[in-house]
Each structure stands twice: as structure tokens, then as C-alpha cells.
Amino acid sequence: MDGAYCLHGDGIPAGWAQNHVTGEKVTLVATGVVLSPAERERQQQERAARLQAAEAERIREQDAAAQRCQGMWDSFSPAVSSPYLEKKGVEVFGLKEDQGNLIVPLRNIHGELRGFQAIAPDGRKGLATGIGKKGNFHLIGADGKDLSQGEIVLCEGYATGASLHMATGKAVAVDGKKAVFEAKGRTLREQGWKVVMAADASLADAEEAEPDNAVPDLKAGCQATAVQGAVKMKKTKPAPRFSEASLIREMEKRGIGRPATYAAIMENIAARAYVKEEKAFLVPTPRGEKLVDALAGAFGFLDLDFTSHMEERLDDVANGNVSYVQCVGAFHAQLMEELGRFVQAHAVPCPACGDREQFRHVYSREKGWNFWGCKACGAIFADDNGRPGLRQEKGAAELTDFLCEKCGKPLHHLQGTKKDGSGQYDFFACSDKACGAKYDNVDGRPVIRKAPALSEHTCKKCGKPLVPRPTKNGGVWFGCSGFPMCKARYWAKDDGSPDYDNPPKH
Fold it and tell me: Which helix (H) or strand (E) holds 304?
């Protein structure tokens, strides 16, 4: 049989096909079928129920086989010797016999008999029908020994296990499985690209090379004689890292992205320093690892199936099968739900009021800001290595007997430390924020600040005149005279006019 296939017709056509000769396997999924989140959940529950039922049936059948084997084991007689044991030169360790066949019991870790292996006089072996093949073994040389602290040798056949126990005195666990050996080889028929291309050593090491020997001339049923044996220590190698080309092939295989988006994906993960290239391979950076660790398990869009399904839905939109709102609406609702749970679980709460949504780390290298602020309660905290530190008390808004010359309302006396730590502030301000009048503190009394000179230019945002102000470097910038109600700012061009198209970054 050179291949196999499986099709599921439970309302959503899908399946797989495999070529046993080449090892290639493909997954088949019908396009144009759009599942709602509820339908997808129901489908997953039905699949889980089928798997659970199949597992329960498998366990039931194995339990029935174990009971049948126990009855047969009780009827067998203890083994004394056999032509097979004499040929192998080993002794009997806990075996029985039936009509000239050796019976090797297979038990689980609790000592319960779960099946047995029969060995014919000529060495042919077979397992009892319907028994479980995992987790069962025959233990040799364990009588009266504490195996929790000692060594247990593992092997496949009884003769091998008995000889190991006789030679070393150690306990041996025999699993009773039949060892299957295969011969591999290859012969280079055409040099091809090797004539003109030399492989990089790092690329050659990425995959374990197959033995470069001639194909053995063997026929079905023939027997080979072992010439020699050697114990070799081998370590499991991790899968080779992706290169750009192999990553694109893997994404294409999993249905992630499209040919038009592969270049943008590669550019993004490199530009954002999620990966770096080392000897033609993509290696994750600490930043990329932290990002994945933080998001994995919290957001569904990290699931490869989610991404491929989204690509299918976008194809449906392009083909007119579903609308854009239907496609994006379901994903957006799921994202908002996951984002809300993520914020509740990971966002730093305000130490003063506990709010997580309006408590932020405020940082600006240009302005010298580095603190934590809460819009919900107004509390401000110093930064302590990326976490909120000591609370910074705002200047006390002391209500004075002085009245605002502009609106007649009482003035506040404001004192405190500037947010950037550059110094202290001490001035008077109108208690009515809509008024916005401010006064300098001169010998404890408010002195109205001189009105700034207005320019002929107007604010693009509110239409009020702009006020020219100097920069630290001797330049000029414009601020709106409607401050603080309007906080628009503009740089000055070389001709002295405001640059409306390139405002300063706030």
C-alpha cells in the first residue's frame, strides 16, 4: 500500500492524504465554510467527546484482554527449560509454558498482569490479542530488592534481558516488543548542483546527514548475520533553526500569510528586533522571547490555526462570500475579550486607587519625564526600575484672599516640584480653570504676568492668535493664546511663519 487518505463528512468537509513512498502528507480543509465562535466551540467539544469515547473503548477492550490472559496464565504450567533457552544459553526467570511455547508475562507498574508474549521453540514470537502495548513489561531479578534507588536495565527481548541479568546481577525490565531493523543507503548517480556549489558548514550541520554508503543488495525474507556491535552515545539534537526561505516555506505549508505579505512579515520581525540573523539562520532575541512568553496562552491570534483561519476568512471577503464586518467583527470581539483579561491580569494597578486602565508609565526623553500617573485619581509616583515607586505629592492648592483681576474669583497659591525635577514652582493661578489667569509671586503677592505679544498668525486648531516663544537653542516656536484650553504648538519656519504641517511631538 503506497498511500492512505481519510475524509470527514460531518458537515464540514476535511481530511488528509499521505504518500508512504515520499512521506509527504497534506491536510484538506474545505474553503467557503464560515464557522461562528459558538459553532467552532461546539465542534471542538464534539471532537473531544469522540476522542474520550474512543479512549474509554480502548481501555475497556484492554481490560477484557487482561482478564482473558489472567485466566490463561493461571492454567499454564511453570517452565523448566526449552530448546529456545538452551540455544540462547539463558535461564528461566518467572516464565511458564504451554504446548512447548514459552510464556513471558507482561505486567504494569502495579504488578497486575496485562498480557503475555509467547515464544515458539524456533524463536518466533507473538503477543496475546488485544493487550495494551505501552507501559507493560516483565521484570527479571527484582525479588526482595528496593528498586526505587537502584538501576533498572531496559531491553526488548527476554533472552537479551536474561543474559544481562546473569552477567550484571541487575534488575532488567523486558517490554516484549519485537525489534525491527532496516537497512539504509544511497548512491550518488548525478553530481548535479554539487559540481558548482559549495555548501556552508553551518548549513550542512543543520540537518543530520544520511549514511553515504551503497544501497544494500537485500531481498525480502533474507537473513543477515551480525558481524560486530558497538555501544554508541547519541544525544538528541534540536530541530534546526529557520532561515528566511525555510520560514516562508513553513508559513506557506501551514496556510499563514500570502506571497504578497511574506516580505512584510520578514521585514517586521527583523525591524522590531524580535529575531536576528546569524549565519543565515533566524535566532530569537531576548525581546522576542519575552514578547512570546507574555502573549502565549493569553491571545488566540498566536495560535497557528487562528492565523490560517483568518487568512481563509479574508479570502472569503475577497470572493464576496462574507462581508468585511462579518469577518472582522467576530475576531475583534474575541480580541477585545482577551485584551480585557490580559489587562486585568498583567497591567500594573495604581497603588492609590487600584485602577488598571488609566494608570500609565509616562516617559519622554525630550522633556525629561519618567514617572507613573493615574488619570482616575490624579496620583503621581516616581519610577523605580520600571515599577511605580514613592508617591509624589502635588503642590498644595491653597485658596488665598487675593482675587483674580480678570474674573474676580479667588486665586490659588501653587507651590511644588516640577515633574521633570528641574526645580521648584511658586505662583498664583485663578481657581476657575476656564479663566486660566496666572500671576507671578512677588514678595508673597500676586503680580499679573505681562501679556505675551500676539503674532499675526492664527492657530489652525481653534483660530486664536499664536504667541511666539523662544527655545533653549535660540530658535522660535508658537503656542496658542487660548492655552490651556487649546494646547496646539508649532515650530517656526526660516521665514518666521508657523510650520503647520510639522508640529512638535507632545
Answer: helix 304-318
Bridge partners (DSSP) of residue 163 are none
Rounded to whole angstroms, the Cα distance separating 479 from 118 reads 95
Which candidate, 413, 418, 456, places its Cα nearest to that of 431?
A: 413
- Distance, in Å, from the CA atom of 36 to the CA atom of 40, rounded to the nearest integer, reads 6
**Looking at the DSSP assignment, which residues form a beta bridge with residue 103?**
96, 118
Secondary structure (3-state) at 248: helix
Helix (H, G, I), strand (E, B), or coil: what is residue 57? helix
CA distances from 296 to 174, 225, 276, 283, 340 (A): 41, 53, 21, 18, 15
Q: Which three cell numbers stand for residue 346?
A: 498583567
Alpha carbons within 13 angstroms on the beta-carbon side of residue 330 total 18
Q: How far apart are CA 302 and CA 75, in angstroms?
A: 58
pTM: 0.38
User: CA–CA distance from 187 to each of 14, 212, 218 (Å)?
Assistant: 39, 7, 15
Question: What does the pLDDT look like over 95-117, one tens digit per residue?
Answer: 999 988 999 999 988 889 999 99
Strands (E), 418-475: 424-430, 438-442, 445-448, 466-470
C-alpha pair distances (Å), 37 with each of 34, 43, 304, 440: 10, 10, 17, 63
Closest Cα to residue 158, out of 87, 71, 73, 231?
87
pLDDT digits (tens, 9 = 90+) for 191-226: 777 776 655 544 444 444 555 666 667 777 777 777
Bridge partners (DSSP) listed for residue 158: none
Pairing of strands 489-492, 498-499: antiparallel
Per residue, the 3-state secondary structure of 344-361, as one string, reads HHHCCCCCCCCCCCCEEE
How far is C-alpha 266 from the geometric centre of its chain's CA atoms? 18
CA distance linking residue 155 with residue 174, whole number of Å: 5
